[in-house]
Amino acid sequence: MTFPNPASLYLLLSFLFFSSLLHRPTFAIKKLESYVVYLGAHSHGTDVSSIDLDQVTESHYEFLGSFLGRNKAKDAIFYSYTRHINGFAATLEDEAAARIARHPKVVSIFLNQGRKLHTTRSWDFLELENDGIIHSSSIWKKARFGEDTMFMIIGNLDTGVWPESKSFSDEEMGPIPPKWKGICQNSTDASFRCNRKLIGARYFNKGYAAAAGPLNSSFNSPRDTEGHGSHTLSTAGGNFVTGANIFGFGNGTAKGGSPKARVAAYKVCWPPITGNECFDADILAAFDIAIHDGVDVLSVSLGGDPTPFFNDSVAIGSFHAVNHGIAVICSAGNSGPDDGTVSNLSPWQITVGASTMDRQFPSYVVLGNKMRFKGESLSTKALPNKKFFPMISAADAKSANASTADAIRCKAGSLDPLKVKGKILVCLRGDNARVDKGQQAALAGAVGMILANDAPSGNEILADPHVLPASHVNFTDGVAIFSYVNHTRSSMACITPPTTQLATKPAPFMAAFSSKGPNTITPEILKPDITAPGVSVIAAYTGAQGPTNQDFDKRRVLFNSVSGTSMSCPHISGIVGLLKTLYPSWSPAAIRSAIMTTAKIQDNIKEPLINASYFKATPFSYGAGHVQPNRAMDPGLVYDLALDDYLNFLCTLGYNQTQITIFSESPYTCRNPISLANFNYPSITVPNLNGSVTVTRTVKNVGSPGTYRVRVQNPDGVSVSVKPESLKFKKVGEEKRFKVTMKVEEAYKASRGYVFGQLAWADGKHYVRSPIVVKAF
Fold this sequence. Notes:
Elements: H1 6-22, E1 32-41, H2 53-68, H3 70-76, E2 77-81, E3 85-93, H4 94-101, E4 108-111, E5 114-117, H5 122-125, H6 139-142, E6 153-158, E7 198-203, H7 206-212, H8 228-237, E8 241-246, E9 249-254, E10 262-267, E11 269-273, E12 276-279, H9 280-293, E13 297-300, E14 302-303, H10 313-323, E15 327-331, E16 350-355, E17 359-360, E18 362-367, E19 372-376, E20 389-393, H11 404-408, H12 417-420, E21 424-428, H13 434-443, E22 448-452, E23 470-473, H14 475-487, E24 492-495, E25 501-502, E26 530-533, E27 537-540, E28 559-562, H15 565-582, H16 588-597, H17 619-622, H18 629-632, E29 637-638, H19 643-653, H20 657-664, E30 684-689, E31 692-701, E32 706-713, E33 718-723, E34 726-729, E35 735-744, E36 754-762, E37 767-776
Helix pairs in contact: 1-4, 2-3, 8-15, 9-10
């Protein structure tokens, strides 16, 4: 039996869904929903300044008016995408949406759904500096920190920006680049100011309002009242700030990956509604404007469940940005450690996982039996030195009406103060926020808290700014601590104050929360692409929230330590800014290739990268490996891609010629479908190997002339051969093609799991490595 590919199947199901809407009984309640109607690309060309944008909006009224009538159409549309992305967002009944979906000019129509937000030492760990000294071979020196005559501009789609942060100071910055077309939008916030560093800021909230209801005037500002946007933007392009720390911990000079780049904030994320903060209609509007404004790099630390590309606002916006030469970097998501959880899956995005760096904030738990366990914390309060206190398991401290499951996780209202007062409480991670568990412990009268990982979190421990003395320990140590407290009549413990510890080993290792492959939309494309520091990252923050983002936290900080793939994403964004400064003619695909093929898959003790459970990690966790910025500026060879390659990719997925022509703003003819395994990606993934397969790749020389010879590490049970085995390049820009044949060995056929290897081209100076991922059936 032949099965349709995922895109064709999705289009079929969409048709059946909308068809079913048309055949509902006439007495069904007509429900209004907000939709995005995507019409592809505009044909304005590069110069939209001469275009009558009102006329574009008028065409959208006219189009929707043919379904609803003109007056209803004007009331229904709340966004008209007029510059580079063609389409609109509107409030529609589902029957109308079904009719619109069948129109030949419509590429796709999808619900305006919510997506989630996915942060001093990291640049030292990435070898751009050494104890604050920036060496001559650093990419910072070579790329002049992201500032030169082309004026690098990094945009950020997030929760906005706190403009008063010193990370966005324009001290020693020159005039605003003449290419900049953006604005500083501050409708109701008179104190919000942009400058020569933070050159632009905008807000987009109409899609959010469509879901949340009418908004008051406080929403009409790009000011960051959550902290996430300031943190990510400063990580990508924040200026140098000496003495940055969080409660005295991690003290040093904060700076972004491209510290002299200009930055712009696009606020698309707002207070969560049912767990979602960032809505599709707003995201697409921000992409459209950011392309127009003139950004060079877009950092996007948000995402949702994997979705076919034409129904994914981030994928659509990213495509149009990349088509205009803008590199788009996205977070992989925080749904690990399960397989198949990675988001932001399109091949034109750079997708980033999260790993640790060599800095920890240790706080030790010492038990009455003299056992000692290393945890982490950023608690500002400390117990008396070496004083022991009685311990109690949160399960034994539950209140009369609480469940044991709620009590062991220290949820609100689950603890009995009479049982907890004056003791160290042992809580289990999961469900509610880690810092909220500490707050509940403090409210119940605990003198301290030990937070132990549950099994899914494994050995990943995070340093949080708890409101009471606390230490977060891993799963293995948590089992031992629970065993002690549950089997000892008078259990006792002390918690030491946290300290800052550098040069820890092993590092990096993968964070348990970092989402993993395989890619569930197009398994032939390995995602994530790369990993970067995303655990306990210190960067700028908002003045409107405490460091825990909980209502009870009245503390305020200039910098905060945050973890997530949201934090690893802007590390790559800053590095991309440096590479674009060095090589302005390189495509986003060439830059991604340079980052991927120069990555490392060993930690600082020369062992393979591991995951949070201390097992060997795979490319499903780290992609091509951990980023090495200095090596990325001289990759030797790159795997490049152009617009037609992406269009061929979409054609192979089953999107039709009409859709792709509208999508790409230029005539396109679907050629004979290519094998997705031949897509010129810097990794090689074959998810359905049956017997043997031969795939092709093309590399372009961007370094000195020379001869490269191939080196192969076979995946278990799969033999790999490469023809030719050497490639000779005489000049920059020269391209060479090679073939890779993979054959299943008899011994492997029974396992049917994914196996991993690698292919590398080496000339004595460069080592151009690609992961190989194979699954037989």
